[in-house]
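ok so I'm stuck.
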Amino acid sequence: MTWVRAEGPSQRSAPQRCRPPGRRGRHPGRRAQLERGSSAESIIVIPTVFVIVFLIIQVGIWAHARSIAVHSAREGATAAATYQSNRSSTEATTAALTVNADGVLRDYTVTSSQTDQAITVTVRGRALSLIPLYELPAIEQTVTIPTEHYVP
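replied:
not stuck anymore, here's the structure
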């Protein structure tokens, strides 16, 4: 049902909707009921948003730790692969990890192997976890670089 105002001499335009008489204040608890529904929704939505944000941050930390591992392995292998280098790849990689790890890459180990043709450096470790008692997948990055030789 549509309620239409009575047209007076100054109101000759299209009919307008108005509130029927006596409807104001008929259901005073309705507004409170709607407000309770919005708080129930926020009880579900807010923790879900926090979990999603923490997961995004955790994936970013894991990717950063992986990047640190591969960068340090490459730096150590490059330092040892140069012509007439006195530096071992394990030393160079450990030095790079000490500078770059910043607590993001934890419990790391460095292994290296060298042949006449190439040097291989492997960095293994774990990324920092924001969630207590939860272990992220282990990080293992291997870099192989050919050694430099003087060819007359």
